[in-house]
Amino acid sequence: MVLIERISQDANLPQVRRLEAVSFRAWPAASVHYDGSWQIRLTGGYPSKRGNCVVALDRSDISDIRLRLEKAARKFESYGRPMIFRETPLAAPQIIESLKEDGWQRFEESLVMTLDLAALDGHDGMDHLPSHDIGRFVDASLTLHGEDPALKPGLAELIGNIKPPYGLFLKEVPGNGPVAAAICVQDNDLAGLLQLVVDGAHRGQGEGFEMTYAALRWARMRGARLAWLQVVASNTAGLALYRKLGFREAYRYCYWRPEAQ
Questions:
Q1: Are 134 and 246 in contact (CB under 8 A)?
Q2: pLDDT tens string 211-222
């Protein structure tokens, strides 16, 4: 998919700030440093881009852009992580122009989508009770995502560091392993859906819909009123699923990396 030329700055900025804040709590980095309003997020044990990136949170904070990027790069180097900048509508245009001038490459555009949870009333679906067995969930998630089992300690630590209440949703077939998995994080009146994945052999059979519906219904019963999620723009199957449930785009973000990476 061709990336749009510039992340729109016409988004509802108060909503963007709130959703960015809850997403940070829902997917916590192991180490967070601030340089002015820039947040430098680093997670040595798990290579998530959301957990290893620089995020600018105030459009007016544009001083010493290149110097600050160099300082951040040294922190990434010390963690053994590639330098990544995450562009949201909160990033000043001057920062993005500096990245372009210095040859940074733009990649992986994603949508942040929201849903009024009252809309779930129009659907039927099975209930799945959340698990609290992090080890079992991590094993299933790594298998379904096709990730290295050696990442288990890092992902388990990340999930264990989530502060708001959360549910680990997992469907397995005895003798055949995991079918689908998702995390739902309830942060007051907001519910975040993360890490939804369905086994390739079971896609197109309603497993993703069932898992998503169950997780969001659980959050709504606990008092959540608005759901949010992040999905890569090229994930057409995921977008179709979320739109079927009633999710609508709130804003977009993308990543930048130095040309040499």
A1: no
A2: 999 999 999 999
